[in-house]
Design a protein that fits this description.
Elements (H helix, E strand, L loop, with lengths): L8 E10 L4 E4 L7 E4 L7 H7 L7 E6 L13 E5 L13 E5 L5 E10 L2 E5 L9 E10 L1
Antiparallel strand pairs: 1-2, 1-3, 1-9, 4-9, 5-8, 6-7, 7-8
């Protein structure tokens, strides 16, 4: 049976829970497992290290502190934009919107404040600054 190494391609189901037990995200919700290659940047290096040595069919609960999961909030990721950029769009605090990044890719931003003609957008990961528990179920290892 294959064991996860630093070069493995892995298919797994995961559930991300906050410390209070609430579920933040889960592949079970969409009914489709996640696939990734170790070292491709889709997971933090700390999280990948917790997967090394697991085999297909194994499950594990991995607790990560905020800095090891989605990192700490970065003040540089908060931007103020002119409200006119959002013409015709309903603006509400807490709304997640897609913005174009410098390389043309889409970046999610959360509307965190609306003040006059200024809109504060937070581009930090929604789970930045939070300790999480990853429940993983390894399906295949290649």
């Amino acid at each position: 049976m294959s064991v996860i190494t630093e070069n493995s391609a892995v298919t797994l189901h995961f559930t991300i829970k906050l410390k209070d037990g609430s579920v933040a995200d889960s592949t079970h919700n969409i009914g489709k497992p996640a696939k990734f290659s170790m070292g491709d940047g889709s997971l933090s290096p700390n999280f990948e290290q917790c997967l090394v040595g697991l085999q297909a069919g194994e499950s594990k609960a991995i607790e990560l502190e905020a800095k090891d999961a989605f990192g700490m909030p970065n003040p540089d990721f908060i931007q103020y934009m002119d409200k006119s950029r959002f013409s015709g769009q309903e603006l509400e605090i807490g709304t997640i919107m897609a913005f174009s990044g410098p390389d043309g890719s889409e970046i999610p931003g959360i509307i965190s404040e609306i003040s006059g003609e200024s809109v504060k957008v937070d581009f930090n990961h929604p789970l930045a600054g939070q300790a999480v528990i990853f429940d993983v179920e390894i399906l295949t290892v290649e």
